[in-house]
Amino acid sequence: MPVIETEEHKALRAAVAALGGKYGRAYLTRTAAEGRHPHELWSEAAGLGYLGVNLPEAHGGGGGGISELSIVLEELGAAGCPLLMLIVSPAICGTVIARFGTEAQKQQWLPALADGTRTMAFGITEPDAGSNSHRITTTARKDGADWLLTGRKVFVSGVDIADATLIVGRTEDARTGRLKPCLFIVPRDTEGFRRRPIDMELNAAEKQFELVLDDVRLPADALVGDEDAGLLQLFAGLNPERVMTAAFAIGMGRYALARAVEYARERTVWDAPIGAHQAIAHPLAQAHIDLELARLMTQKAAHLYDAGDDTGAGEAANMAKYAAAEACVKAVDQAVHTLGGNGLTREFGLASLITAARVSRIAPVSREMILNYVSHQTLGLPKSY
Q1: Which pTM was predicted?
Q2: Mean pLDDT in the chain?
Q3: Residue 166 backbone phi and psi in degrees, to 5
Q4: On the chain, which terminus has fewer CB atoms closer than 10 Å, C or N?
Q5: By C-alpha distance, which of 359, 270, 374, 372 is closest to 314?
Q6: How many CB atoms are closer than 10 A to CB 283?
Q7: What is the mean pLDDT of residues 246-254?
């Protein structure tokens, strides 16, 4: 794996950073306050080819991979305007359809996901199962040529703007033995498919929803991939989700750190910039080091995934998500402390990141579950659950 980015990747970073600079954190804060989505940024990013950079050229994408899409998200985050739906629509749903969808599904969805004219949400988490696919109770049963899908999902992002939601269920007989998670495309206006917004204290443009599926009737071609493929298809979407969450966290941490460094250079107390004091400078330097190390693991995970090494990518993606979340939280905390009281004002816009940074520790999988994964999958220790 190359540890130095290619000239193409460097150029992509610079171009996306320029786009992010046109919008910035003030734009994203304003859209959230107005209760709307960042359509302007989404549309311009689509027009420049950034939304579908990971999707196949044959279906309107850029022909790249998660490596390129994670750069897009990280740089937008570093500019203060990350797009959460980049994780969901092209990274998870687009990747799954590109890898396992029928040709008809690819033609129907991939060009539109790439050009931003359609979006797709992703529903896996359940009230009693979290993201534990072994306890998912949303079930699909056949009724003639159709499927009937019943269950509940929570913390599903962007359902209000999504044209469809990729729902993770499992076949009925999985309850008695073999786990067979299956993926279904559920259009927004399908009968029996209801949504309710979840009242979040997190201030974000993308809203969270609870979904209820009450014998939702779907045609046979709503199933993505093979009914019996099981976890392979599911983790084709979950591994990119972890990589993209890491990129999201790194971008956020970089944004906070840049604001703190700028303040530490300019804020003068006792005739010297506060950044001249090691008590300020060293923690900021440590935050930068942690973010850079997390980026290296994120690049490794993306490289392995794009190379087709699903097993290696699974391990690296979990580690990248863990490292990036920890680095992000530390960077945001240190940024706020560097600014002191100013770190809690709306003028500087860092206080809201205290909550946002912690999302990366929780979603899409908690840091504790990642430690469980590494302890028994990588280190070979006995399972604790």
Answers
A1: 0.96
A2: 94
A3: -85, 110
A4: C
A5: 374
A6: 18
A7: 98
